[in-house]
Design brief:
Layout: H1 3-10, H2 14-23, E1 29-30, E2 36-37, H3 41-54, H4 59-64, H5 76-107
Antiparallel strand pairs: 1-2
Length: 121
Amino acid sequence: MRIGELAARTGVSRDTIRFYEKIGLVAGRRLANGYRDFPPETVTWLTHVRTAQALGFSLGEIARHGRDIGGAPDDAEVLSALLEEKIRLIDTRMAELAALRADLEARVGTDCPLRRVGPTG
């Protein structure tokens, strides 16, 4: 299918599809007239890519784990492990943000907000 039809069927812009092609996330072939032609399974793949992005995966992570997020039943165990790792990263980041928030909150209303706060401050 041509890039316009692919864009219409997936809700992904033509420019984004071209970018994904440039970085190797999708592959199409060139027709004799120079148009891009993508296989039908690209629709499903782009749906997986967009879902993975919405779940916090970067394009780099998607590219590295592409085979594992393909949606085949055999991929479920590997994908679940990737999701669990993403949850661990989110939990770590949330703890870091909570500590940062507490530090900021402790500095509000002090005579010198940038002075070190705590036992060594």
